[in-house]
Hints:
4 helices, about 80% helix, elongated
Amino acid sequence: xxxxxxxxxxxxxxxxxxxxxxxxxxxxxxxxxxxxxxxxxxxxxxxxxxxxxxxxxxxxxxxxxxxxxxxxxxxxxxxxxxxxxxxxxxxxxxxxxxxxxxxxxxxxxxxxxxxxxxxxxxxxxxxxxxxxxxxxxxxxxx
Length: 142
């Protein structure tokens, strides 16, 4: 009886943690999406050709990917630990890539040398991690 109660308590904590992680990723996706739209608007209306379109597209695209990843993780399609790492890498990679370009356009300096390529590399690795999370996930029947 005691083992069953411990499993129930452990399961409740895991579910609460999963909900908190999903909430954080959904919030970050919303902020990334909004930032992407702002950068695309700035590129279209004020600073055409400055590179903000690339930064905006990266943010907007990966915001949608973040939401999709959260949904797939919630369905058990993706291996959770690997998916969480991949989704965090989406946020970090997109922030580095877009942040470096945006800072260069508006402030005339970079985040740090090779920040945008580092962000891009992180994004590539995150996509590979998503593929692996899908391969090792356990899709639910029916």
